[in-house]
Amino acid sequence: MIEQNFEPKIVAFCCNWCSYAGADLAGTGRLKYPENVRIIRVPCSSRVEVQMIMRAFQNGADGVMVAGCHPGDCHYDTGNYHTRRRMMLLQSLTSFLGMEPDRFIVKWISGNEAAKFKSTVEEFNETLKKLGPADKVRDQRCGI
Amino acid sequence: MRNITNELREIAEDLLESKKVDVVLGYAKGEQPYQSVPFAAKKKEDVENLIFDIFSYSSLSKYLLDDMYRGKKVALVLKGCDYRGLKIMLDESRVDRDDLYLIGVECRGVLEKSKLKKKIDATLFETTLDLKEDKLAISSSKENVEVPYEDVLSPYCLACEFSTPHKEEVDIILGEPGKMTNKELTTDECFAEIGQIEKMDEEQRFEYWKKQLNRCKRCYSCRNACPVCTCRVCLFDRENPSYLDSDTSQLAQHQFYHVIRAFHISDRCVGCGQCSRVCPENIPLHLLNQKLIKELNKFYGSYLPGVDEQPAPLSFAKADDPDPFEKEEK
Ligand code: SF4
Ligand code: SF4
Ligand code: SF4
């Protein structure tokens, strides 16, 4: 059952050096992107621990995005390679548990890709609208 | 197996008498039928309680982290998988090899009591086991059955590639090499349920795990029994932030616990099977670990934690790793 006018809540972990800059550029360039995305700035995409992602879902997120620099462009050289390994593993585990893996995406967005930031969030938003609220992974006591 | 017990007692007596060690950690008979429990022999009189058999499940290496054993000389009984767990602790400098006397055993696998129970009508209290060459004979006043070992051994033992600790790494090895079953099964065959779950659609998978995980009492036995789950302060015990509370009514909390537990030991699991074995609710935790091992092996090449010398797959990453996330742009 999908509610009318359902506005998904998106948590986007953006790395300081690329994706956050990309989002920032989208803002200063006045590109309009869905305002239901909550950006959390992290020093590097590899800072995002699995428990942070799970926690976001438990407490209200309908979708979580982890965004980092393109492979090869990491400010710390190899951070996003680690992200890639871990997130791939997380995705196969959540998929094995039937926990709607489409609610979780990983994207490489550089500091000058404001348009990519915008289109990624828009697309994700559409996917989540179709999926509806993330009841399967939500802690029902969280008040959302 | 009896000879291992006798050999073990002799060694233990010797070690304690000569004061080479302060304590010998091994197994003793438990109160339940076919139950072997961890046992610390500290003096000569304790030694006759020591046993080693096909129910000597638990890994003893984690006791070394207990304050009680700090600075003590400890002798430890180790199966192959137990050795792997200890090796990880040694590599991480959690324990000092010089304080240890390692008694390796030639392990032929352990029997799963849950599988045993399914084979017979009587309770385990009423049955006797006879370990024959290639079959297990189970008899009770009601019936006598013979079952092939592959039906009652732990799936982990059927898939085990490292049943004896490295000879050069331990102080002594007890027993003789050999196997309970000659049937060669692939890992996929040993863990056939994984294939079945993978074939389900997403909704079915969700329902399957919902039924399993909702039974979890969050007793943390699975974490505590695991030889490679050794963080000084566990994430689940942290108070700030406190990730979990004691309420077990929320599937989301169970998902959190199980995803994180499996993930944190994904490239460390030594395949002892103890997590599932200790679960009071029979939640098939091993399927989660084994699924992750399967994925890691598929993408980054095979790796046996606690055996292979190369770094664990999640401890490094490379530029040319597979990238499943941005297919469309390539
Ligand atoms: S996995 Fe089983 S067969 Fe292998 S060492 Fe451990 S108990 Fe023995
Ligand atoms: S996760 Fe389970 S099978 Fe793996 S090492 Fe820990 S207790 Fe053993
Ligand atoms: S042993 Fe079983 S019931 Fe206890 S926490 Fe682990 S899965 Fe839950």
From TrEMBL, chain A:
Domain F420-non-reducing hydrogenase iron-sulfur subunit D, residue spans: 10-132
Residues annotated as transmembrane: none
Gene Ontology MF terms in the entry: iron-sulfur cluster binding; metal ion binding; oxidoreductase activity
Pfam families in the cross-refs: FlpD
Keywords: Iron, Iron-sulfur, Metal-binding, Oxidoreductase
InterPro entries: MvhD/FlpD
Domain of life: Bacteria
Protein name: Hydrogenase iron-sulfur subunit
Species, as recorded: Proteinivorax tanatarense
Automatic annotation (TrEMBL), chain B:
Domain called 4Fe-4S ferredoxin-type: residue spans: 260-290
PROSITE patterns on file: 4FE4S_FER_1, 4FE4S_FER_2
Residue stretches spanning the membrane: none
Keyword Metal-binding: yes
A Pfam family this chain is assigned to: Fer4_8
Gene Ontology MF terms in the entry: iron-sulfur cluster binding; metal ion binding
Highest taxon of the lineage: Bacteria
UniProt keyword annotations, A-Z: Iron, Iron-sulfur, Metal-binding
Record protein name field: 4Fe-4S dicluster domain-containing protein
Originating organism: Proteinivorax tanatarense
